[in-house]
Amino acid sequence: MRGEVVKLVFMASIAALTAVLAQVKFNVGPIPYTMQNMAVILAGLLLPPKYAAASMGLYLLLVALGLPLASGFTGGLAVLLGFKGGYLAGFLIAAPLMSVLSRGYLRYRKVDLSRISRYDAVALLLTSLVSATPIYVLGFLVFSHYAVPGTKLYSWSAAVGGWLGISTSSDFLVLLTTSVLIFIPQDLLMDHLIAVTVAKGIAKVLKARGVSVD
Predict the structure, then answer these.
(1) In 3D, which of 33, 8, 15 has the Cα closest to residue 87?
(2) Are 23 and 67 in contact (CB under 8 A)?
(3) Could you say which of 58, 69, 120, 146 would form a disulfide bridge with 83 (CB–CB 3.0 to 4.6 Å)?
(4) Top-confidence residue, 101 or 153
(5) CA 147, 128, 203, 8 torsion: positive or negative?
(6) Residue 189: what pLDDT?
(7) Is beta strand 25-28 parallel, antiparallel or unpaired with respect to 31-34?
(8) DSSP the chain
(9) How far apart are CA 179 and CA 177, in angstroms?
């Protein structure tokens, strides 16, 4: 029973953390770059798949109900159905995917999260990039749906593409760059790296207290 309570507490806590990190942001053109990926990866590292998914589901439900928990203290269905909605929807897949892949890796290595080496940390970091793929794919698809010629989103994307030396004759490459590729380095080397480091520290504390979230 204690284990279930701990899982529920962590599930709710990570949902709350996702809301907090939504406000830690800077804007890349019209797209807010937040640190929410840290919470997504942390959910996957600390919680079993269904609880990892539930933590993200809880966050999105609260946003859908109108609570100002998305970036810029916004909320409501308009946020989830807007051009940023694909990234948010991706959280529901990325968190449990990270849970499955990271647990599979740790079992293969026969090592506990609290005792991972630098090698393991790098492997989990690479795993986090794979796990975040649904965020990028859905983010790109929804963004591309809204960023059509004649819109401000498209004009901004074309301007950034030109600045980066990308031929504006390739809408796919321009939109992929501006909606996905420019975010990956910081996602991986900041959000995901912090998540792996924090998860290891939390796992150490839990193990010392004889508490498990698996």
Answers:
(1) 33
(2) no
(3) 146
(4) 101
(5) positive
(6) 92
(7) antiparallel
(8) -HHHHHHHHHHHHHHHHHHHHTTSEEEETTEEEESHHHHHHHHHHHS-HHHHHHHHHHHHHHHHTT-S-BTTTB-SHHHHHSTTHHHHHHHHHHHHHHHHHHHHHHHHHT--GGG--HHHHHHHHHHHHHHTHHHHHHHHHHHHHH--TTSHHHHHHHHHHHHTT--TT-HHHHHHIIIIITTHHHIIIIIIHHHHHHHHHHHHHHHHTT----
(9) 6
Instruction: State residue 80 phi and psi, 5-degree precision.
Output: -70, -25
How many C-beta neighbours within 10 Å does residue 139 have? 23
Nearest CA to 75 out of 62, 84, 91, 58 is that of 62
**Tokens standing for residue 200:** 């290891």
Contact present, 121 and 114 (Cβ < 8 Å): no
